[in-house]
Amino acid sequence: MTRNERKCYSAAMTKFTLADLEKRVAARAKASAKESYTRALIDKGVGHCAKKLNEEAFETGMAAVQENKRRVIAEAADLLYHLMVVLKVRGVTLKQVEAELNKRTRQSGHAEKASRPRAK
Fold this sequence. Notes:
- The structure is a single chain.
- The protein has helices at 3-13, 18-29, 37-43, 46-66, 69-90, 94-104, 109-115.
- By secondary structure, the protein is an all-alpha fold.
- It has one domain (16-115): Helix Hairpins (Orthogonal Bundle).
C-alpha cells in the first residue's frame, strides 16, 4: 500500500464514529416506529432491546470463530448499533461509557477487574 493509499484508507476509516452512531440513533428514536427500526425497537422496551443486543453479541462471537473477516466486521457493526440502542433506552451516553473506560485504564486489567464489586 502506498503512502497516498494509506492516507485515503485512514481518512475513510475515520469518517463515521461511534459518536456519529449515537447521534444517528438519537435522531431515529424521534421518528415514528413505521419509519424507523430504531424507534420500533425502543417502543418494544429495554428487555427487547437487550435481547437483540444479546443475539448480536452471540452472532459476533460465532462469526469470529467460524466466518471470514468481512462477516466479523458486519456482525460487529450490528452489535455496536444494538449497544447504542440499549444505551439510548437506558439514558446512558457514550461520553459516560468513555469516562468509565478512562477510569479503568489507570490500572491493569487484572487489578481493575478484581476491584469491581461482586454480584450477589
